[in-house]
Specification:
The structure holds two protein chains of two kinds. Chain A is an alpha/beta fold. Helix content of chain A is 37%, strand content 20%. Chain A folds into two domains: 143 residues, D-Maltodextrin-Binding Protein, domain 2 (3-Layer(aba) Sandwich), CATH 3.40.190; 94 residues, D-Maltodextrin-Binding Protein, domain 2 (3-Layer(aba) Sandwich), CATH 3.40.190. Chain A has ten helices and twelve strands. In chain A, strands 7, 8, 9, 10, 11 and 12 form a six-stranded mixed β-sheet that branches. Chain B is mainly alpha-helical. Chain B starts with a helix and ends with a helix. The chains are: A alpha/beta, B mainly alpha. At the A-B interface, strand 9 and helix 7 of A face helix 9 of B.
């Protein structure tokens, strides 16, 4: 609440400043960027600025990252907030940045098609950067570094690390990369049980259908918190999951722009602020990712 | 289409699972249909009521809901079936309700004289039903029973919800592995077409063979 109020106050100050400057007719101040920033003509970001709306694909059901508040309809979480910062980089400090954004729900299956056919301008949806996906889309970032981890029932003591999953039944989500990484580390793990949502895996864990659930630590943290002590996360990370911003393949100018924006957020402390606000409650420690400007 | 060709083995495996699901659950659904249709026309009130209750509760709840309820709710009272068995059971009792209604419609086409004649020859009610009425009834509804078979073939895809990797599940998995969902699902569509068109051919032949000549 206090943070929100603080932001509101900052906004009001900025607005007053902007108003004052507009009347005074000159001068410059960081807080007073009321005019949209100048963007190179012909680029994707300039086109987005022109049409006045940034279309962001994100998850609507992912606690801590992209979760639609059923009461307000607002999308909350780290992915959504990174999207808002990108919108600010395109449109300047607009009073209600959400008025410049249209959030579209993307699930694991439709992220690539939505980028390719232009349904969305970019995707920020716990979207792990990997080589297969890079053949189809391009990635800016990473803007978040997750790790795959293991969640078990509270009374489970025989599983300590990923290799203990050999011969065990392990659940993960359809359309995620978790299973591949797991099979590489624990080839004898039985991964035949998969569902469309993480919460169903948690249910199967509770029912004893599986002995463990694997996916990104950031997601497991949310599930363990919801389970009221039924499950625990082992904190035995076995892979790196860099989350990137997906964009149309070959749009290098836009990618550089997004990378610069993320770098700025990391440098000026906004990244840490958003992390504390959105993710830290899940018990994950912050890890500033190093941006990969691949060519 | 390279995605499909590169993963033909996985597709083949998916199709086999789809065929197994279809044949097993259709056989069970057909049996359920015969028995419950008998209930629905029987002279015993409670049996009729039970038949009606089954048809109306099962038929009016979507298949996906049945799947999730069966799979996630039963373990809470200590009953656990594997995903494949759960899928067969759910598909069977869901389509059993439709089979019941189809066969009952068939029974209604058999003229009352047939049953009366059987009874006058000393047949009991089950005897009349099994030896006289049902053989004629089923023959008159081969076409709708065939439609039910094709519907079931496609409905097996819902089993993917409870992690049975049939054809749709295979396509979904490939979509992730390759980041190319469209060819993967086109491959699944081709697989279903192959199965259903073949089924249509067989059913057409069967229909011509057993149809009641009038």
């Amino acid at each position: 609440m206090i943070r929100t109020r603080g932001q509101l106050a900052a906004f009001l100050v900025a607005l007053t400043l902007v108003g004052g400057l507009a009347c005074g007719g000159g001068g410059s101040s960081q807080a007073a960027s009321s005019k949209p920033p100048k963007l190179a003509a012909g680029t994707t970001m300039a086109a987005i600025q022109q049409k006045g709306k940034l279309v962001i694909g994100t998850k609507f059901d992912q606690p801590l990252f992209g979760l639609k508040d059923p009461a307000t309809g607002k999308i909350e979480g780290f992915d959504a907030d990174i999207g808002r910062e990108i919108a600010k980089a395109i449109f300047g400090n607009v009073k209600d940045i959400d008025s410049k954004i249209s959030f579209v729900e993307t699930v694991s299956k439709n992220r690539e098609p939505f980028i390719e056919n232009g349904t969305v301008d970019l995707v920020a949806a716990t979207y792990t950067i990997n080589a297969t996906r890079k053949q189809v889309v391009d990635f800016a970032g990473p803007y978040f570094q997750a790790h795959e981890d293991i969640m078990v029932r509270k009374d489970e003591n025989s599983i300590k690390t990923v290799t203990d999953l050999n011969g065990k039944k392990v659940c993960s989500v359809q359309g995620s990369t978790s299973i591949k990484n797991l099979v590489a580390k624990a080839p004898q793990a039985d991964t035949s049980i998969t569902f469309d949502t993480y919460s169903k895996c948690a249910e199967a864990l509770g029912d004893g259908r599986v002995q463990a659930e694997v996916t990104d630590n950031s997601i497991l943290a949310g599930l363990a918190a919801q389970s009221e002590g039924k499950y625990k996360v082992l904190n035995a990370p076995f892979s790196d999951e860099p989350y990137g911003i997906g964009l149309k393949k070959g749009d290098t100018a836009f990618r550089t722009f997004l990378n610069d924006t993320i770098q700025k957020l990391e440098d000026n402390g906004t990244w840490k602020k958003l992390f504390d606000k959105d993710v830290s409650s899940g018990g994950v420690s912050p890890e500033l990712p190093k941006i990969d400007r691949y060519s | 289409m390279g995605v499909v060709l590169d993963h033909l083995d996985q597709f083949r495996h998916g199709i086999v699972i789809t065929i197994e699901l279809t044949l097993l659950s259709y056989a069970l659904a057909f049996l359920i249909g015969l028995v419950v249709a008998g209930f629905r026309v029987s002279p015993v009130g409670p049996l009729r009521a039970a038949g009606t209750a089954y048809v109306e509760t099962v038929r009016n709840v979507p298949l996906a809901v049945h799947f999730v309820l069966f799979f996630f709710a039963l373990p809470k009272i200590g009953i656990i079936f594997s995903p494949f068995r759960s899928a067969v059971i759910v598909l069977a009792y869901y389509h059993g309700s439709f089979a019941t209604e189809t066969i009952r419609a068939g029974i209604n086409t058999v003229s009352v004289g047939q049953a009366e004649a059987a009874r006058s020859l000393g047949f009991t009610f089950p005897g009349t039903l099994i030896r006289v009425v049902l053989p004629q009834a089923v023959r008159s509804v081969v076409a709708p029973l065939g439609s039910l078979f094709i519907a079931l073939t496609k409905n097996t895809s819902v089993a993917f919800l409870i992690s049975v990797t049939e054809l749709t599940g295979t396509a979904d998995k490939l979509a992730t592995d390759t980041a190319r969902p469209i060819p993967a699902f086109l491959g699944a569509a081709a697989g279903y077409l192959l199965l259903t068109l073949f089924a249509s051919l067989v059913l057409g032949a069967l229909e011509r063979r057993v149809a009641v000549k009038r």
